[in-house]
Hints:
Elements: E1 15-19, E2 53-60, E3 63-71, E4 88-94, E5 108-118, E6 124-130, E7 148-153, E8 157-165, E9 179-188, E10 192-195, E11 212-217
Parallel strand pairs: 1-11
Antiparallel strand pairs: 2-3, 3-8, 4-5, 4-9, 5-6, 7-8, 9-10, 9-11
Amino acid sequence: MSLITVPARAFFSFAFPCHRRIEAPKIDGNLRDWDDGFLVPDLIGVDGGKSFADVYMAWSDAGVWFALEVKNKRSYKVDPRNFWQADCFEVWLDTRDMKDSHRANRYCHHFFFLPGGSGRDGKGPIGRQTSIDKAREQAPPCPEEAIKVGLRRLKRSYQMEIFLPAEGLNGFQPREFDRLGFNYVVHDIEQGTQSWSVDRTPPFDGDPSRWGTAQLRASTDLPNNGETP
């Protein structure tokens, strides 16, 4: 009999302020236009884990942005078919954040982003929406060409920037619904996994009641109100 280990985080409700961006960052993989005010709080320490990646998040009426830096990186493996078994960044979003059901619905989205796998040299990034297991109803697909991903590989790390447009997020109405159900998992072939509210253990990864919450803040005390200098 195999044992399912559930992280302690899965039994708590987590929320953080997700700040609005006045100016959209350039999606080129360079994180120079992100600062610590946009960082998603690191929760893996609750279970005694050690983080190896910084994750940033922001929003505007146009959509949602993410930025990622994975540190201590030496080698890469990407697999678009079995993305969770290689280097990958996964994101789950619920545009209603109701927390009243254990099964995903049409407002729940699952995306994955790879630091390679496209282009002639295979080093271009990939961003795609995928289905959620045992969902009552899948969200309408966000066209792959509408998802913007920028990648920058450095000597011992990689940086990624992502934009998910509002029209690709079913039910995204931030002026009416100012919370997003949210979870992420970073996979690394050398360092393992880093997750937020829950890891990728089925069925908890597809259970929106166990995801955390990103509280969409319309105003912010960040320098320049989120604008780049």
